Amino acid sequence: MRGASGGERSEIHQHSGWLIPFGLALVILVLCGAVLLYDLRPAALFRNNAPSADVRSVSLSVRGVQFQIPGNYLEARASRRGDDPDLISLSALLPDMRGYSIPDAGLFLSNAADSPVVHLVLRADTNSLSAADRLARIYGPYFAGPDGTPDQFGLTRYTFRDGTGYERNDLYAGGGGAGPLLLLCERPAQDLPSPNCLAIDRPVAPGVSLSYRFKRSQLSHWRGIATGVDMLVAKFMKRQIGAG
After folding, report:
1. CA atoms within 13 A on the CB side of 184
2. Which of 75, 175, 191, 214 sits in a 20 to 30 Å window from 83, CA-based?
3. Burial class for 98, CB neighbours closer than 10 Å (0-12, 13-18, 19+)
């Protein structure tokens, strides 16, 4: 007795069980890649942080501390609408700490090792440590030696042990007009041709701390940068007080 009429034979094709999941995974990867490329296109990268030459002042408040900041200092487009954010990002140009303008557009967008741009961050910080406490409690356990050594530009230099996560950085301490200042500076390397220095968080008002970043090539001017940053932030705060 034949299983199929007319002498035709039934053929059963077996497929590997992993083909369908593999195909779905491949489709998902392709779609994710397309979305990522779309989000990383130049227009998208600058969509939320497009600089502005608009000098009109914007009222902002961080944890109740009022700031009146010209729009050409604000990095985020959302900040220029005025709000009560927990973080405000600003940019200024050395040596006079001026805001963004069309003639200076190339300087503001450059990431060259000698870039004159200073990036500032004002953020909510209710547990801000003093520079001395931060030096002893946060960084001290990772130092290669217990004491810093006098270095150029009137700074004291601390080096980190290998394997600490900080070994590619130097920590500098200096006395500024607003008190001790800590600068965490990246070391130049083949894979880091444009290293930065970060002036680590310090309080500027109750519940608000300030940090700022500049190129390590500008380290010799750290005193002038610190003074300029302090004057700029004070000016933004004074404007609001005066308006009230």
Report:
1. 17
2. 214
3. middle
Assess contact for 93 and 108: CB atoms under 8 A: yes
Q: In 10 A of CB 51, how many CB atoms?
A: 21
| Tokens 């030096």, located at residue | 135
Which has the minimum average pLDDT: 61-70, 81-90, 109-118, 179-188? 81-90
Helix or strand holding residue 85 (H, E): none
One DSSP character per residue, 134-179 reads IIIIIIGGGBSSSS-EE-GGG-EEEEBPTTSS-TTEEEEEEEETTE
Among 10-14, 128-132, 150-154, 155-159, the minimum mean pLDDT is found in: 10-14
Q: In the structure encoding, which two tokens stand for residue 120, read together?
A: 């500032």
Partners of 182 in the beta sheet?
173
* Residue recorded with tokens 């590997």: 16
Residue carrying the six token digits 């932030």: 233
b/e map 9-37, b = 16+ CB within 10 Å: eeeeeeeeeeeeeeeeeeeeeeeeeeeee
- Give dist(CA 156, CA 148) in Å, integer: 6
For residue 163, what are the contacts with CB-CB under 8 A and spacing of at least 6?
none
Residues in the chain: 244
pTM over 0.85: no
Indicate whether 37 pLDDT > 70.
no
- pLDDT at position 8 over 60: no
97 exposure class (CB count in 10 Å sphere: 0-12, 13-18, 19+): buried
